[in-house]
Amino acid sequence: MTVAKMFFADPPKKKKFGFDFHLVQFFFACLLSLAIYLVAQYSRYEMRRMEAEAELKKKAEEEAKAKAKEMELMAEEEKQVTDPQLSEVKARLDKLEETLKEIVVKSKKQSGNVAERPASNAVKKEHGTAKPGTLGADLPAKKIL
Questions:
Q1: Is the distance from CB of 120 to CB of 99 less than 8 angstroms?
Q2: Which residue has the higher pLDDT, 2 or 118?
Q3: Would you give the DSSP letter of residue 139?
Q4: How much is the average pLDDT of 68-75?
Q5: C-alpha span between 75 and 119 (Å, rounded)
Q6: How far apart are the first and last CA of the chain?
Q7: Is the torsion defined by CA of 23, 24, 28, 34 positive or negative?
Q8: Angle, CA 105 vertex, CA 103 and CA 110 arms, to 5°
Q9: Helices of type H across the chain
Q10: What pTM was computed for the model?
Q11: Which is higher by pLDDT, 22 or 15?
């Protein structure tokens, strides 16, 4: 009897899930990978944007440095143009320094020659070629023994 009721009864209604269960599992499995992919794409976008900003900052800094150098050069030129007396004084000082160096070099050479003179005078005195009356005149003030 129970078997006959089951046999002749309407089959129970199947619950409709809507989508195949395997398709839903596939979607959830791919969801994590999709999220990672989207985060990677966003980070690439941000990195490119930040690099572009850094390049713009570098260019701006270089331009600022170039402008500063130009301003310094222009300021120097203005000083030279507006102050010709200063440039003349500098030129004269340079000439004076050169002549002073030449004088120092000449004095060193002469001091070296003076050191050699007494020895040559002493040789002349030994040979008796010194003039009479000028016996100690050309010698420096030294004690004669």
A1: no
A2: 2
A3: S
A4: 90
A5: 61
A6: 166
A7: positive
A8: 90
A9: 2-8, 21-82, 84-127
A10: 0.36
A11: 22
